């Protein structure tokens, strides 16, 4: 106890000294928040937009008077799609910059890489991307979808009459933990729906892979066995551009073999000619094309921001699901801080449960009181010729997340809340 | 495709022969067409197909083009930049305010495509008829037999006719008459279409096919199709191997000169590819801003730009750094690696860290469909051709020009070449520039199939060295064979073991090969001068 007080005292002194050095009383009135997204490398295609969304949201909050009267001060670092570098940068944010909270990561491998750091230094991470579940950390809030909020409903849709009543499935992904785990869950789920292993093909490609000829030829062969075939794609990062280009060039149409993607949104499709891809599917919890006042405000805010920041191709700037999740996460953190009257990590964690926010998806989202995941609506969209998605199916209400998927053996014994560490 | 869509198609084709005249459409049906429920939409499409007038076809086409609009009061459509009332077909002037288009899902879209194809089977343009007939492959049933027979009778085009015959055979598979079924099964043995194979598979099941003779015939037809499809898929594999080989060749050709001939271990080779790819991006930007009409041809204009930009960077590197390090491979390796980092950072500073979008010109999109299951994408076909022309150009330069003669002389015996008056220093710079320029052309080709970003070169440096080392240092022919061999072996292994395992196996094979034959596929014969 003594030691802890002493430590606190030292910290306070150092902070005071630091703020004194960095010039004036104003610096002491800011709260530092860390942004940990790849701005270069294979994941930059997806993550750069999240960095911009975080900066925009912080600017919005600051313009409205900040958090508890203090301005937010973003600290941006670039982990460059390099997984060990994520851990290093996270450590730098927490111990050198002393940020109150970090918004960041996209791939599960990057999240796994920073987890020990957040646990050790008792930091707070908001993770905005759909993922494979199998995790429940006290120091992390998951504002993206768990498998039952994205993958399972997407497969249900493919099995339904409107989705084409698929009987054979190709599970195609990038070779790392998220696609492997998701496909393990999906395989078990498909078994429960009476689909045999002979009717499931699983394929993986490395990060940054760009030659999809053989794989598309394989999919064509696999679909020519007289049963309706669908592809579930968990390809991540910039490999999606060559994949969809090849798909369009090879003439494999969505009405014959639909592809449903879990990591492809409006942003990833910007560099692709979408005319040959009309009808390909994506499963998310938000699409830019949904119509409601919150979304109109959100998309307009981002367009204006992109123009003001002179982002590349700002006039065609789009919003997507992880951007919405980032936006919701930052606002919920603000609400929790204001409820706790403190940026102390443990107090904020206690205040997060049960927070609600009127999200651009058109639903009022609630942070689960216990399991650190958002209750989210599920939507299935079809690609239109203009690169936007047309929502063809959605849940009526937000769905509670199941981080421990019941389709993985042994998960029934796991608790639906973080274990004390 | 579900069964009742087939009935609907049959109805449609029947109607086309009778062609009833009717002006306005049933308002109830049009309203049903914009219902949110897919089943309602499908029923309305069926009803419109039955009407069969050009007005009905126009409404269906509008729905398929995302150009059908609806409010509670009226339904209208846009066609040829004009607005028409969907029910009466009359032009609306002024056009109503824009609201959302009526949305459709894949199920409705598939039905619509077939319905529209049915309309087009009687199109005066043979190309349209061919496309329509091809899109109906695998989607026909017995109820369509009379309509297809009628269409076949009228058909005169030699390209459309065999497709229609195949369609008729597919339809006859469900003919109640055993003889017709047997004939259809036998006809289909000539098909190359995976769809036909799928239909034949259903004939193997005794529950669908009571007649044992037909089942046996179906079995042998499937075997015939399978043996042809196996050939086709082998062909497709060889093609993708050739395509990968041509890309490896383009990436490695420049290195074959700088490393192979001059002996410089150039770790910045990948970044010279990147310079070429970014040249394509810059030229594309210039065309977008100044010559939007000629946008499709930016890539042609980018060829000299990519060559010159990369050659300039290469010559600058040679003059400033590499020249002082000849004969010291380790220092060269480190220095060029440093240069590669500088170039990557320079690209980040100039163009941003994110990938940039380099679009395919329209003549490089899509593919040429040789057979129903074999489509060769244009971009890959063109890149194979481009690789061959770059190879020819390089061969001509090395064998037929004075520069090539000097380069070969300097490589074989620098001192002697100097003695007879070859300006060896200048030749070094020019040869390095040539190698770098060729790398730029490789980067230009890469920009069409892979992502263009500051660190794109890193992914190709290892492959390029593999090609050159495998082919035999100092040998252009070796690089060609090594690139094609690597491409085809990789693609065959990928087909068998998946992309990740294939890469590992290829590396293992190369390690064993180099241990057995350190000089590579082709070795320089005679006295090699170091």
From TrEMBL, chain A:
<dbReference type="InterPro" id="IPR028082">
    <property type="entry name" value="Peripla_BP_I"/>
</dbReference>
<dbReference type="InterPro" id="IPR017777">
    <property type="entry name" value="ABC_urea-bd_UrtA"/>
</dbReference>
<protein>
    <submittedName>
        <fullName>Urea ABC transporter substrate-binding protein</fullName>
    </submittedName>
</protein>
<feature type="signal peptide">
    <location>
        <begin position="1"/>
        <end position="27"/>
    </location>
</feature>
<keyword id="KW-0732">Signal</keyword>
<dbReference type="Pfam" id="PF13433">
    <property type="entry name" value="Peripla_BP_5"/>
</dbReference>
